[in-house]
Specification:
The protein is α/β, with parallel strands linked by helices. The chain is 34% helix and 17% strand. The chain contains 8 helices and 10 strands. It has a 6-stranded parallel beta sheet.
Length: 247
Amino acid sequence: MIYYFSGTGNSKWVAEELARLTCDTAVSIADIVRSGGHAEVPEGQPVGLVFPVYAWLPPEIVSSFVSELSADKDAYRWAVCTCGDDAGRAMEKLSKKFSLTSAWSLRMPNNYIRSFDTDPEDTVREKIRGAKQRLKQIAQDILERKKVWDIQSGRLAGLKSALIGPAFNKFARDDKPFYSELSCTGYGLCESLCPADNIRLEGGRPIWLGHCLQCLACIHRCPERAIEYGKETKGKGRYYFSEKYLD
Protein backbone atom coordinates (compact mmCIF):
# COMPACT_ATOMS: atom_id res chain seq x y z
CA MET A 1 0.00 0.00 0.00
CA ILE A 2 1.16 3.53 -0.82
CA TYR A 3 -0.11 6.32 1.39
CA TYR A 4 0.23 9.86 0.11
CA PHE A 5 -0.52 13.43 1.09
CA SER A 6 -0.86 16.09 -1.60
CA GLY A 7 -2.14 19.64 -1.91
CA THR A 8 -1.50 20.73 -5.48
CA GLY A 9 -1.10 17.27 -6.96
CA ASN A 10 2.65 16.69 -7.21
CA SER A 11 2.78 13.96 -4.57
CA LYS A 12 -0.54 12.48 -5.71
CA TRP A 13 0.86 12.00 -9.21
CA VAL A 14 4.10 10.51 -7.84
CA ALA A 15 2.18 8.08 -5.63
CA GLU A 16 -0.13 7.01 -8.44
CA GLU A 17 2.76 6.64 -10.88
CA LEU A 18 4.67 4.45 -8.41
CA ALA A 19 1.51 2.45 -7.75
CA ARG A 20 1.17 1.84 -11.49
CA LEU A 21 4.83 0.86 -11.88
CA THR A 22 4.85 -1.48 -8.86
CA CYS A 23 1.30 -2.89 -9.20
CA ASP A 24 0.32 -1.36 -5.87
CA THR A 25 -2.48 0.90 -4.64
CA ALA A 26 -2.23 4.59 -3.73
CA VAL A 27 -4.47 5.92 -0.95
CA SER A 28 -4.88 9.50 0.26
CA ILE A 29 -3.83 10.12 3.86
CA ALA A 30 -6.18 13.11 4.00
CA ASP A 31 -9.14 10.92 2.98
CA ILE A 32 -8.31 8.43 5.73
CA VAL A 33 -7.96 11.17 8.35
CA ARG A 34 -11.17 12.96 7.32
CA SER A 35 -13.14 9.72 7.49
CA GLY A 36 -11.83 8.98 10.97
CA GLY A 37 -10.32 5.74 9.70
CA HIS A 38 -7.14 3.96 10.70
CA ALA A 39 -4.65 2.39 8.31
CA GLU A 40 -3.35 -1.12 8.90
CA VAL A 41 -0.96 -2.82 6.50
CA PRO A 42 -1.26 -6.61 6.18
CA GLU A 43 1.65 -8.45 7.80
CA GLY A 44 4.68 -8.71 5.57
CA GLN A 45 3.33 -6.32 2.96
CA PRO A 46 5.54 -3.38 1.89
CA VAL A 47 4.35 0.12 2.76
CA GLY A 48 5.20 3.30 0.91
CA LEU A 49 4.76 6.98 1.80
CA VAL A 50 4.74 9.94 -0.57
CA PHE A 51 4.53 13.51 0.67
CA PRO A 52 5.70 17.08 -0.02
CA VAL A 53 8.32 18.78 2.12
CA TYR A 54 7.01 21.80 4.04
CA ALA A 55 9.77 24.09 5.37
CA TRP A 56 12.21 21.14 5.36
CA LEU A 57 9.91 18.93 7.45
CA PRO A 58 7.15 16.44 6.67
CA PRO A 59 3.67 18.01 6.85
CA GLU A 60 2.18 17.63 10.30
CA ILE A 61 -0.65 15.47 8.96
CA VAL A 62 1.90 12.97 7.64
CA SER A 63 3.90 12.85 10.88
CA SER A 64 0.72 12.25 12.87
CA PHE A 65 -0.49 9.59 10.44
CA VAL A 66 2.69 7.51 10.50
CA SER A 67 2.83 7.68 14.30
CA GLU A 68 -0.36 5.61 14.33
CA LEU A 69 0.26 3.51 11.23
CA SER A 70 0.17 -0.20 11.99
CA ALA A 71 2.70 -2.00 9.83
CA ASP A 72 5.03 -4.97 10.22
CA LYS A 73 8.41 -3.66 11.43
CA ASP A 74 10.17 -6.26 9.30
CA ALA A 75 8.31 -5.21 6.15
CA TYR A 76 9.96 -3.19 3.40
CA ARG A 77 9.21 0.45 4.21
CA TRP A 78 9.99 3.25 1.81
CA ALA A 79 9.19 6.91 1.25
CA VAL A 80 9.48 9.55 -1.46
CA CYS A 81 9.34 13.23 -0.60
CA THR A 82 8.72 15.86 -3.26
CA CYS A 83 10.40 19.26 -3.01
CA GLY A 84 11.15 22.28 -5.15
CA ASP A 85 14.89 21.86 -4.66
CA ASP A 86 16.12 20.21 -1.44
CA ALA A 87 14.55 18.26 1.41
CA GLY A 88 16.67 19.17 4.43
CA ARG A 89 16.35 16.51 7.13
CA ALA A 90 12.66 15.91 6.51
CA MET A 91 13.11 12.22 5.75
CA GLU A 92 15.30 11.61 8.79
CA LYS A 93 12.67 13.30 10.95
CA LEU A 94 9.96 11.08 9.51
CA SER A 95 12.04 7.93 9.93
CA LYS A 96 12.29 8.58 13.67
CA LYS A 97 8.52 8.16 13.84
CA PHE A 98 8.24 5.39 11.24
CA SER A 99 11.50 3.62 10.49
CA LEU A 100 12.28 3.44 6.78
CA THR A 101 14.26 0.92 4.75
CA SER A 102 14.67 3.23 1.77
CA ALA A 103 14.00 6.86 0.89
CA TRP A 104 14.25 9.23 -2.06
CA SER A 105 13.71 12.94 -2.64
CA LEU A 106 12.27 14.08 -5.95
CA ARG A 107 12.41 17.56 -7.47
CA MET A 108 9.00 18.81 -8.55
CA PRO A 109 7.62 22.25 -9.46
CA ASN A 110 7.57 24.94 -6.77
CA ASN A 111 4.16 25.89 -5.45
CA TYR A 112 4.72 27.73 -2.14
CA ILE A 113 3.95 31.16 -3.55
CA ARG A 114 3.94 32.86 -0.18
CA SER A 115 7.74 32.85 -0.44
CA PHE A 116 8.49 32.32 -4.15
CA ASP A 117 6.74 32.65 -7.46
CA THR A 118 5.89 29.55 -9.45
CA ASP A 119 8.53 28.06 -11.72
CA PRO A 120 8.50 29.13 -15.39
CA GLU A 121 6.56 26.65 -17.52
CA ASP A 122 9.68 25.29 -19.20
CA THR A 123 11.15 24.56 -15.76
CA VAL A 124 7.89 22.91 -14.69
CA ARG A 125 8.00 20.63 -17.71
CA GLU A 126 11.70 19.87 -17.22
CA LYS A 127 11.19 18.91 -13.58
CA ILE A 128 8.19 16.69 -14.32
CA ARG A 129 9.89 14.96 -17.26
CA GLY A 130 12.94 14.34 -15.10
CA ALA A 131 10.79 13.02 -12.26
CA LYS A 132 8.94 10.64 -14.58
CA GLN A 133 12.20 9.10 -15.73
CA ARG A 134 13.59 8.87 -12.20
CA LEU A 135 10.42 7.20 -10.93
CA LYS A 136 11.13 4.25 -13.20
CA GLN A 137 14.37 3.56 -11.32
CA ILE A 138 12.78 4.18 -7.94
CA ALA A 139 10.01 1.74 -8.81
CA GLN A 140 12.57 -0.88 -9.84
CA ASP A 141 14.43 -0.40 -6.55
CA ILE A 142 11.16 -0.85 -4.66
CA LEU A 143 10.29 -4.01 -6.57
CA GLU A 144 13.74 -5.42 -5.81
CA ARG A 145 13.46 -4.32 -2.15
CA LYS A 146 16.75 -2.47 -2.37
CA LYS A 147 18.07 -0.44 0.54
CA VAL A 148 18.51 3.08 -0.83
CA TRP A 149 18.85 6.46 0.83
CA ASP A 150 18.95 9.02 -1.96
CA ILE A 151 18.00 12.39 -0.49
CA GLN A 152 19.06 15.82 -1.75
CA SER A 153 19.42 17.45 1.66
CA GLY A 154 20.86 20.76 0.49
CA ARG A 155 23.01 23.28 2.35
CA LEU A 156 22.46 23.87 6.07
CA ALA A 157 20.00 20.98 6.08
CA GLY A 158 20.14 20.37 9.82
CA LEU A 159 19.66 24.04 10.63
CA LYS A 160 16.72 24.41 8.26
CA SER A 161 14.87 21.38 9.63
CA ALA A 162 15.68 22.13 13.27
CA LEU A 163 14.84 25.84 13.27
CA ILE A 164 12.90 26.95 10.20
CA GLY A 165 10.58 23.93 10.12
CA PRO A 166 9.33 24.25 13.71
CA ALA A 167 9.01 28.03 13.30
CA PHE A 168 6.90 27.45 10.19
CA ASN A 169 4.56 25.11 12.07
CA LYS A 170 4.25 27.51 15.00
CA PHE A 171 3.94 30.85 13.23
CA ALA A 172 3.44 30.52 9.46
CA ARG A 173 0.32 28.35 9.37
CA ASP A 174 -1.97 31.17 10.44
CA ASP A 175 -4.92 31.19 8.03
CA LYS A 176 -6.32 34.60 8.98
CA PRO A 177 -4.63 36.34 6.00
CA PHE A 178 -6.56 34.19 3.50
CA TYR A 179 -9.36 36.02 1.73
CA SER A 180 -11.40 35.85 -1.45
CA GLU A 181 -11.65 38.65 -3.99
CA LEU A 182 -14.96 39.98 -5.29
CA SER A 183 -14.40 37.77 -8.32
CA CYS A 184 -15.19 34.71 -6.14
CA THR A 185 -18.27 32.95 -7.53
CA GLY A 186 -18.82 30.61 -4.58
CA TYR A 187 -18.04 27.61 -6.77
CA GLY A 188 -16.76 25.72 -3.72
CA LEU A 189 -13.79 23.87 -5.20
CA CYS A 190 -11.61 25.24 -2.41
CA GLU A 191 -13.91 23.67 0.18
CA SER A 192 -14.03 20.26 -1.47
CA LEU A 193 -10.30 20.12 -2.21
CA CYS A 194 -8.93 21.26 1.16
CA PRO A 195 -7.09 18.20 2.57
CA ALA A 196 -7.32 19.60 6.11
CA ASP A 197 -11.10 20.12 5.90
CA ASN A 198 -10.35 23.71 6.85
CA ILE A 199 -12.65 25.65 4.50
CA ARG A 200 -16.41 26.25 4.63
CA LEU A 201 -18.59 28.37 2.41
CA GLU A 202 -20.71 30.92 4.25
CA GLY A 203 -22.91 33.18 2.21
CA GLY A 204 -21.27 31.83 -0.90
CA ARG A 205 -17.76 32.84 0.21
CA PRO A 206 -14.99 30.71 1.74
CA ILE A 207 -13.94 31.06 5.36
CA TRP A 208 -10.91 29.37 6.92
CA LEU A 209 -11.36 27.49 10.18
CA GLY A 210 -7.99 27.73 11.92
CA HIS A 211 -6.21 24.44 11.22
CA CYS A 212 -4.50 25.15 7.90
CA LEU A 213 -1.59 23.00 6.68
CA GLN A 214 -0.39 25.64 4.18
CA CYS A 215 -0.67 23.36 1.16
CA LEU A 216 -2.17 26.36 -0.71
CA ALA A 217 -4.44 24.10 -2.77
CA CYS A 218 -7.26 26.63 -2.33
CA ILE A 219 -5.18 29.38 -3.92
CA HIS A 220 -3.74 27.34 -6.76
CA ARG A 221 -6.92 25.50 -7.75
CA CYS A 222 -9.44 28.37 -7.62
CA PRO A 223 -10.80 28.61 -11.19
CA GLU A 224 -11.31 32.39 -10.78
CA ARG A 225 -7.91 32.99 -9.14
CA ALA A 226 -9.96 34.76 -6.47
CA ILE A 227 -8.10 33.57 -3.36
CA GLU A 228 -5.08 35.36 -1.93
CA TYR A 229 -2.95 35.24 1.21
CA GLY A 230 -2.51 38.84 2.37
CA LYS A 231 -0.20 40.64 -0.04
CA GLU A 232 2.22 37.72 -0.31
CA THR A 233 0.54 35.95 -3.23
CA LYS A 234 -0.71 38.94 -5.21
CA GLY A 235 0.51 38.95 -8.79
CA LYS A 236 2.13 35.52 -8.53
CA GLY A 237 1.46 32.49 -10.67
CA ARG A 238 -0.70 29.49 -9.91
CA TYR A 239 0.28 25.85 -10.27
CA TYR A 240 -1.20 22.41 -9.86
CA PHE A 241 -0.08 19.18 -11.44
CA SER A 242 -1.59 18.44 -14.82
CA GLU A 243 -0.96 15.69 -17.35
CA LYS A 244 -0.45 18.46 -19.93
CA TYR A 245 3.06 18.96 -18.55
CA LEU A 246 3.95 15.46 -19.71
CA ASP A 247 3.34 16.30 -23.36
